[in-house]
Amino acid sequence: MASKYGKKTSEKVEKVMKELKAGTLKSGSSGKKVTSRKQAIAIGLSEARRAGGKVPPPKKASSK
After folding, report:
1. Which of 34, 36, 60, 56 is nearest to 46 (CA)?
2. Domain housing 16
3. Would you say residue 14 lies in a domain?
4. What pLDDT digit, counting tens, does each position of 17-43 carry?
5. Residue 31 lies inside a defined structural domain of this protein
């Protein structure tokens, strides 16, 4: 079975998690400091996706 994420992706997420721990990770356009681990991972995956890494597409929110 093929892996879900590529090497570039894990490197990006690792970099973002280090920024989160150091307290220097900022969110997109608002520039607010990120405190949530889940949000940090989402930022890392998004950056990896933009850089052309192997990342599955984001899940779509279902409207009920």
Report:
1. 56
2. 7-50
3. yes
4. 999 999 999 988 888 998 999 999 998
5. yes
